[in-house]
Known about the structure:
By secondary structure, the protein is an alpha+beta fold. Helix content is 39%, strand content 28%.
Amino acid sequence: MRVQVCIIGGGPSGLLLSHILHRAGIETIVLERQTRDYVLSRIRAGVLEQGTVETLREHGLGDRMDREGFPHGGTYVAARNRGFRVGFEALTGKRVMVYGQTEVTSDLYAARDAAGGAVVHEAEHVAIHDAGGTPHVTYRKDGAEHRVDCDWIAGCDGFHGISRKTIPKDVLRTVERVYPFGWLGVLSRTKPADDELIYANHARGFALASMRNERLSRYYIQAPVDDPLDKWTDEAFWDELRRRLPSDVAEALETGPSIEKSIAPLRSFVAEPMRWNRLFLVGDAAHIVPPTGAKGLNLAVSDARYLSEALIAHYGGDDAGIDGYSDRALARVWKATRFSWWFTTLMHRFPEDGTFGARMKEAEIDYLEGSEAAQTVMAENYVGLPF
Ligand code: APR
Ligand code: PHB
């Protein structure tokens, strides 16, 4: 078969790109290695920047989000058993939306289905050919070999995908920082700890109280990434979380059985450039941020937005967007990488911190509490920098 844009990966980046291009009359196919159920069972962050919310609305994807999501005008930051609020709305005029990535992905699948979009699941051995010339992609499905000829390939296949690896080593530069801890996450059918998120710095390590809705809470604690999960019984998790949250919050905390529990590593990673000839990288295929501040999905959306604009202009006869895609996307990626790194560094305890490092973090959080200028810097990054 032949399409204009062959999209590898059916996560948020690939689905959103396909959806926006379809609405502009550009033909795509999405090749996804996993089943749809598998993709929708992955639990990821749940905070959408204002620009992400607007992008979803602009493209007809906002109805359920607007009904079921929760706009938040601020967040709490805590340290040394005290919390204070950073009011995004008062400082920037913008809010964020609490709405899980799983829900965004599910809405994207519904939109692709409604439009009759081609999404192939369980596509095996996806391979990119001749991205420097006449591109095509091959894959296996149900034992048969398939070939897709195309003008462009969008690598939306996440950090472990094949697209980035197709770019020659002498072209691609990668930068990486692996953090010396992970996040142990728990989802539970309990009332959230507060009306907004709480990010807590504590001598025993970071804790985050987040939520999905009035009866579904999401909590994380900093933990050794190689801790066996069975060490973390529900009781051990709740005990440790309570120790790290301010005591008034801890005392009122509703606990219950975990319905999901996992440990995830934290990493900052950027690959440049994000285009090589007829291949583009989009979302996690090109960059990973640590989850503190929830930038991962928001970056996937901004990449998909930039690339869709570039491709739409290209089919209208203007290649400036294609040529500028990598620089434009990376300018935003690096700023979100910086913010996620700053927020991660500030809120976590690192083995090398020592007393001096710990005091510096506490002093910075104290400064944040007292300085509108410092809070504005945090708020404008948290709600999302402009496109
Ligand atoms: N062939 C086909 N599909 C693949 C391949 C492959 N070789 N390798 C990976 N995939 C699929 C994965 O199964 C996954 O569904 O590509 C998809 C990539 O999706 P994500 O990892 O969700 O990446 P992206 O769409 O860029 O979204 C970024 O996801 O990981 C979070 O925090 C991140 O929120 C951010 C968002
Ligand atoms: C989440 O709810 O999963 C979440 C929220 C905020 C973050 C990270 C994760 O910064």
